[in-house]
Structures are given as structure tokens and as C-alpha cells.
Design brief:
Elements (H helix, E strand, L loop, with lengths): L11 E5 L6 E5 L7 H7 L4 E7 L3 H10 L5 E7 L8 H13 L7 E6 L1 H13 L5 E6 L2 H7 L4 E6 L2 E8 L4 E4 L9 H18 L1 H15 L3 H21 L14 H10 L7 H18 L5 H13 L12 H8 L12 E4 L5 E4 L4 H11 L4
Parallel strand pairs: 2-9, 3-4, 3-5, 5-6, 6-9
Antiparallel strand pairs: 1-2, 7-8, 10-11
The structure holds nicotinamide-adenine-dinucleotide and glycine.
């Protein structure tokens, strides 16, 4: 990987190396309109584009224009995390069955992580698994959720609790579509970008320190580079540990604290990336307490999060007790022990259940004003 920005107008291709299930990620401005490539990934002539009512008016038409010669139908769902449900999947399955789409059909997800996760799960289950293409339209989806094959929906008793690993046959990340993304959603995606620098790519972290302003103003070259470098990091981790038996869990830096914040606030007032931002700051604090991260490195982490416009403190309503209660149900927890992803310097991370209770308690008190 190189840390210099390349010509933003040339599309870049990366491959997620998973043997017979390997697939390309194509990144660059205007890629949404390049239907030829997308068509070449389809195993058959039938395709269902799943999108939502916010994204459809913006980007459905250029995508459809590239599907010439394909028997393509469209399902437009309501917008929002509240619709990432089995009921929305049923709407996908209903349409596929009404159209008599067979096992050679493809589900194309056009949207953010909500559409990608639910369309991917619908594809995983339809006739025991059909092809699926990701066309991510948020920064978070382009750098994280569209790559790696985690698909699923929410259950009333837990977020992302119903799902499957189902890799796409290809990902098209058109960086120009991010021009219409609200600033808050952009910052939320940047949290996941910063995460890659912190867990395994110190050079990228330094690049982000130098280029955060360009990234936030959606400079073409900065965006293309940040998406490509993030995807390259994610592709490496997924290739090494597709089913999250080990290193893939480091992608959850900040997420244990973040999920507690999201759950406590009812998944309504805080965006996922915002909660992850505060969670990364909290994980850095614990890492310093463990002697694994220098205080000046933690300060660099917090400064970069702040420059991205991300919160670095949890909401005032959180207490240490509420954090502990919610963190205990994290998917990484084993035998009732909380497992955290922590920094070992900038550019390296570990998953550990070795944090003493009083060390974690001191961090929770610090961040909830009870210290
Ligand atoms: P989202 O899909 O809700 O999109 C955010 C908002 O932006 C929505 O209102 C959407 O309609 C709108 N939008 C999308 N593209 C736009 C564009 N180009 N211009 C203007 N508006 C646009 O949220 P998200 O942050 O993309 O994804 C969050 C979801 O991703 C969560 O459900 C989370 O669980 C999931 N996720 C999955 C993985 C994974 O590995 N599968 C990883 C991280 C997050
Ligand atoms: N977003 C975490 C993962 O894909 O594993």
C-alpha cells in the first residue's frame, strides 16, 4: 500500500482474496454509471435492485441505465435503521418470488449499510443463497459494511442478531455519490476510517492527520485514497479471518463502548459512527491505563476524532453501571467476561479480557463525570 494520493479519476480495483469466493471492489468517481463491469458479475439475466426512498431519487436512474439487457426490477424501501428487519427482507423475497426469479438472479444493494445488510441477508436466504452486489452510497458503507460479507437484520431483542455471512460478488464504490451525504453521516463514516489507522496502519493514521480537512470537504483525491486504503485494510483482515475467529474482532475497536451508547440511547439520537468515535476515545483511555499506549498518542487520537467532528465523550445520561450492564451483552463477550479491543501504540490492536475491573471502572467514572 502506498500513502500518496493517486489520480482520483482513474478507477482503482482491489480484490478480497477468499479463494473461489474472491471478489473485486472498484473505487472511483462516476463508477455507478459504469454498468458494463457490474453486468459482467451477474451469473444470470435477472436482477433486483434494493434501495430506499432517500437514495432512489438520487442514484437509481444512473444505476438502472447501466443494467441494459438485464431483466431488472426495483424495490424501494422506507429509509432508516428501524426498517432493517425481517419484514423488509420478506418484501424482498415476495418480489423475487412474484417475479419468479430463479437461483441465477442477483440482488443489488444500492444504499448505505442498512440497505446493504438487509439486502445481503435476503440474498443469502433466497433459495439458499443467490448472488449479491453491493453499491454502497455512504462513507461508512464504502469503507466498512459493504466489504466482508456480514449481512443481517435487527430483532426487537437485539441489533444485527439475525444474519449470515454471505460475500458479495462485487462492490462498486462511487466516491462522487458522497457529495450528497449529510455532514453528520460523513463524520460517522470517518470514525471507521480512523479505526483502520489505529488498529493496523500507522502510516494511514498520519495521512489522516495531514488530510482530514481535504477528506471532510470531499476532495476527490482524498476521498478516493481514504476509501481505497480503508478497503485494502478491511480486505486483508477479512481474507485472514472471514468468520471472526481472531483478528477480525479488532475491527470492533471502540464498538463495545459504542454499542452500549447506541443501546442506551435507543439507536435514535446517536449515529453508529458517532458512538464508535466516543468508544475509540474510551478505548484509548483504557489502553493508556494498561501501559500500552502513551498519553501523547491518546491525545493524537482524541484530536483527530475531534477534527472529524466526532464526539469524544459519551452522552451525559450514561453511568458506569449502565455501561457495564450493556457491555456484558456484547457479541465479543465470552463466559460473562467483557472483551475489549485496545490499542498497543498507534497502528496495532489486541482483543483482551485482561483489563482489571478497577481499571475499566476508573475509565468509566472518568468518562461519566463520576471520577
Ligand atoms: P444508513 O444506511 O442508514 O445511511 C445513512 C443515511 O444516509 C440514510 O438516511 C440514507 O438513506 C442516507 N444516504 C445514503 N446514501 C446517501 C447519499 N449518497 N446521499 C445522501 N443520503 C444518503 O447508515 P450507514 O451508516 O450507511 O450504515 C449503518 C448500518 O450499517 C447499521 O445498520 C450497521 O449495523 C451496519 N453496519 C454493518 C457492517 C457490516 O460489516 N455489515 C459494518 C458496519 C455497520
Ligand atoms: N464491521 C466489522 C466487521 O466487518 O467485521
Amino acid at each position: 500500500m502506498t500513502a500518496s494520493m493517486h489520480d482520483a479519476h482513474t478507477p482503482h480495483r482491489l480484490d478480497v482474496q477468499l479463494g473461489s469466493r474472491s471478489y473485486p471492489i472498484v473505487i472511483g468517481p462516476g463508477q455507478l454509471r459504469q454498468g458494463e463491469l457490474l453486468r459482467s458479475w451477474l451469473p444470470g439475466r435477472q436482477a433486483l435492485v434494493v434501495t430506499n426512498e432517500t437514495v432512489a431519487p438520487l442514484y437509481l436512474e444512473p444505476l438502472q441505465a447501466g443494467l441494459e439487457g438485464i431483466d431488472a426490477d426495483t424495490l424501494v424501501l422506507p429509509d432508516g435503521e428501524a426498517h432493517k428487519t425481517v419484514a423488509s427482507c420478506e418484501r424482498v423475497w415476495d418480489r423475487l418470488l412474484e417475479r419468479r426469479f430463479d437461483r441465477s438472479c442477483t440482488v443489488i444493494a444500492l444504499g448505505g449499510g442498512v440497505v446493504g445488510d438487509l439486502a445481503g441477508f435476503a440474498a443469502a436466504a433466497y433459495q439458499r443463497g443467490v448472488a449479491f452486489v453491493q453499491v454502497p452510497t455512504t462513507l461508512l458503507a464504502q469503507v466498512d459494511s459493504s466489504v466482508g460479507g456480514k449481512t443481517g437484520v435487527n430483532h426487537p431483542l437485539g441489533k444485527n442478531m439475525i444474519g449470515a455471512f454471505h460475500q458479495p460478488v462485487g462492490v462498486v464504490a462511487d466516491t462522487r455519490v458522497l457529495d450528497t451525504l449529510p455532514a453528520r453521516e460523513m463524520a460517522a463514516g470517518v470514525a471507521e476510517v480512523i479505526k483502520y489507522g489505529l488498529i493496523r496502519d500507522a502510516e494511514f493514521f498520519a495521512w489522516l492527520e495531514d488530510n482530514m480537512d481535504a477528506l471532510l470537504r470531499r476532495d476527490s483525491a482524498a476521498l478516493a485514497f481514504a476509501v481505497e486504503r480503508s478497503c485494502a485494510n478491511k480486505a486483508d483482515v477479512v481474507a485472514a479471518d472471514e468468520r471472526e475467529q481472531g483478528v477480525r474482532a479488532t475491527l470492533n475497536l471502540g464498538h463495545t463502548f459504542g454499542h452500549a451508547i447506541e443501546t442506551a440511547t435507543g439507536y435514535s439520537s446517536w449515529l453508529h459512527g458517532e458512538a464508535v468515535g466516543a468508544g475509540i476515545a474510551m478505548a484509548a483511555h483504557v489502553s493508556v491505563a494498561m501501559g500500552w499506549l502513551a498519553a501523547h498518542e491518546r491525545d493524537r487520537v482524541v484530536r483527530l476524532l475531534e477534527r472529524a467532528g466526532l464526539p469524544v465523550m459519551p452522552p451525559a445520561s450514561m453511568t458506569p453501571e449502565r455501561f457495564l450492564e450493556l457491555m456484558a451483552v456484547d457479541k465479543k463477550a465470552r463466559d460473562g467476561r467483557i472483551r475489549l479491543v485496545l490499542q498497543q501504540g498507534i497502528g496495532s490492536a489486541v482483543v483482551t479480557d485482561a483489563v482489571p475491573a478497577d481499571t475499566l471502572g476508573a475509565t468509566l467514572r472518568h468518562f461519566t463525570g463520576e471520577a
